[in-house]
Amino acid sequence: MVVAAMVAFSLGACNPLNKMAKNAEGVTYTVTPDPLEMHGDTVALVIDGKIPPKFFNKKVIVHVRPFFESEGAVVKSFEPLTLVGENADADGVKINYEEGGKFQYEFKYPYEASMERGFLKADLEGEFKANKKQLYTATVADGTNITPYLVMSDEKPILGKDQFERVTHEVFNSEINYLINSSNVRSSELSDDDMKALFDTIKSKSGDTSYVFVELDVQAYASPDGELTLNENLADNRAKSAGNAVKSKLRKYKVNDGEESFYNLMGKGEDWDGFKAKMQASDIEDKDLIIRVLQMYDDPVKREAEIKNLSETYLEVKEQILPPLRRSQISLLMDKVGRSDEQIMMAVKNDPSVLSVEEMLYAAALTNDMNEKLNIYQATISHYPEDWRGHNNEGYVYFLQNKIVNAEQSFKNANSKSANNPVIMNNMGIVTRLKGDRRMAMDYYKKASGAGNEVNYNMGIVNIMDGNYNAAVANMSSYQTLNLALAQILDGKNDAAKSTIAASEDKDSAQAYYLKAIIGARTGDQDMVMQNLKMAIQKDGGLKTKAMKDVEFIDSDLSSL
Question: pTM for this one?
Fold first, then answer.
């Protein structure tokens, strides 16, 4: 028995693990980051370890086993890193006995909810020959900062906009032609189809209260083949004669009778531009020469004389080109005035079939009642099933009512009417993100490019969730929201975040005060932390429990909350 005890004592005395266990606290660790941080649903970290001199026995193997502990329980264990003495027969990081050494362990893992408050620890287990011994358990980092999870689902859907115009402008054009050197309106001209159509329009619209006659515009011209002053007077007289011809019809049907401001009569003189255009379109043999003459001389008298010198060609010009230039161009401007808001809403309730699709879509904008909007969009779908906007806007309302399944089906129906429409792609991206598929949502948003700033903002939400905070700040910059402030905080732009919160519509919300408390913690302002946490908790009592666990405030004294 005495011999056996002596052997056991001898073996224990020779076991280097005992000495290493006594000195294991000399091994130091630095973790980056500390506290741990979650970005894009993942925690990534680097453990840098330092071994003191004359600690690591030359024949010992040490396994460094990191694990995460929360509330006394191990919630996650990680693959070990092996350190080996300089004479040990094993693979691993070599540690010199005399000088000590360093090791680095870099790894990442998916974040789990149980890791919000706890500790990253590391077990050191020594191995010498057949012996194993737990040398030390070190606490190496706190965990885990999950501030990115404060992102709010405030995505911005887009409506299919109506093209409703209460007042639409209509123009009816006609033309009167004249004989050379004459401003008299021939009866044959008044019976031409275009003039008959103009007179019929005046007759039919004069009794329609939805039409307003705005202006009669007459521009008259002379052909450039006479004395300049005569042609200028001739153009003025033609404007008057054409105006009088139409004025008689307007007076007959009591349209703007006696309102001289209604008439805009203008003589434009010789029509050299019209002459050049008709020459270019003609098949006259010397047309290129005549056009060069036009370009060579600014003086209309000189130009006319040079053209007339081309005797044979001038006969063709006289017969083909000049007669149509002796004219008055008549434009009757009218406004069609649509239904009033009251009339539209009355029709929506009593007989929506009388409304155009634009009026139906416009009607939905006249009410703030979401159920009434939904009814109008559904009536739009019933009467105009092929218009994608009715389906899309139905989905828009469903989304605002938090009926995501219904919204998605409506957006799919819209897409079947207008495939890959950017507005619909934005909205499909939103419901896809809410279902948890960020990658597919981003694909939809890319297809929605050009639909509006809403698309970029929605991309920014995905950027925050993916840990790409700089991109989130850039994408969300058109909106002063708490999500933008969150992205700025995560991107290290605390001053910008404070300004954004101050400008936000939600600046007095619990979330806003909580974000300002985080800014205080990150900038070392304890008063800012406490003042804003107290305000946040006043508005949302549940935030007290969150704050107590939040490692953002790990260095703050929250005992007075």
Answer: 0.80
